[in-house]
Specification:
alpha/beta, Rossmann fold, 4-stranded antiparallel beta sheet, 14 strands, 28% strand
Length: 300
């Protein structure tokens, strides 16, 4: 595991922001850290990045308890960007890269590599305040990855980006992950979770309320709904044999019981009645639906 959170508690006065939370982030994974506003995600991130420490429990990065060397092994891109607007871009990046442990020569080489990659060499002498929000986002991304961290923590990394630059940053995230970088991805956009994450943890009111592999979770929350599309008219007694959940245009959605044989029965029925099937698929819940359902179930 690249990261292990073990029974962690964080309190601010009488408020418990993180309440005995435990989970592991598999090495080389893209891991979704999810939760509604005020759930405790930011408190967790602050502890992982050693900005604060847990009141109880322990956190391990790559098998080693967090220590003064930890920040050099992590790249953190916060939702609220932290660039110094009066500084020149090149000077600013050199300063931040050296804070992460790179020599000036190594920092200069790595930054120029990213400038070439993003085709932004003419930004070096510009002040940060002269850049658009999307351009600043690219600079913030470079500051996060320039020291080649073991673990990336990306908090709403596509905020402020147009579709072209969103695709660019997504591609870079995928390439970093394929090269072995582990990534924690925090977002409120559940479609991005489905697209990018292979594991997730959902925090609500400071507690871990859902944790595991994305595919496993989607199967766990499925409701045995099957969508059938056909140009034929279904037999008159179809509703007597099967529970119809809805009839969207050109299709019928059937809800079966939990017995796997019922799916075979449905197919056999359609074949026996010479129904020409153009599409037949199980409908799995979206992560947005799972998120809402689980949060509602765990509200006090």
């Amino acid at each position: 595991m690249i990261l292990s959170i073990q029974n962690v508690v964080k309190q601010y006065g009488k408020h418990t922001a993180v309440d005995h939370v435990s989970f592991d982030v598999p090495k080389g994974s893209v891991f979704g850290l999810l939760g509604p506003n005020g759930a405790g995600k930011t408190s967790l991130i602050r502890m992982i990045t050693t900005i604060t420490g847990p009141d109880e429990g322990a956190i391990y990065l790559d098998g080693e308890q967090l220590n003064e060397r930890t920040p050099e092994q992590i790249g953190y891109m916060p939702e609220e960007r932290g660039l110094y607007k009066k500084m020149k871009v090149g000077e600013h990046l050199l300063y931040l890269a050296q804070l992460k442990g790179l020599s000036k020569a190594d920092a200069d080489r790595e930054i120029k590599h990213w400038f070439d990659k993003f085709e932004i060499n003419d930004w070096w002498e510009k002040k940060v305040e002269e850049l658009s929000k999307g351009m600043q986002q690219k600079i913030q991304f470079i500051t996060t990855v320039v020291h080649k961290p073991k673990l990336l923590i990306l908090d709403e990394p596509f905020s402020g980006l147009d579709p072209i630059n969103t695709t660019l940053i997504k591609d870079e995230i995928r390439q970093l992950n394929e090269a072995g970088t582990s990534i924690i991805f925090s977002t409120h956009r559940m479609e991005q979770v489905e697209e990018m994450c292979d594991h997730i943890v959902l925090i609500n009111q400071g507690k871990n309320v859902l944790y595991g592999e994305v595919k496993t979770i989607k199967n766990k929350f499925k409701e045995n709904l099957f969508r059938i599309e056909t140009a034929d008219t279904l037999p008159a007694d179809f509703d007597k044999h099967f529970q119809v959940a809805s009839r969207p245009d050109g299709a019928v959605v059937v809800q079966l019981n939990e017995e796997s044989s019922r799916s075979n029965e449905l197919l056999r029925y359609l074949v026996q009645h010479n129904i020409h099937i153009t599409r037949y698929e199980e409908i799995l819940p979206t992560f947005n639906e799972i998120f809402i359902r689980r949060v509602e179930e765990t509200q006090n």
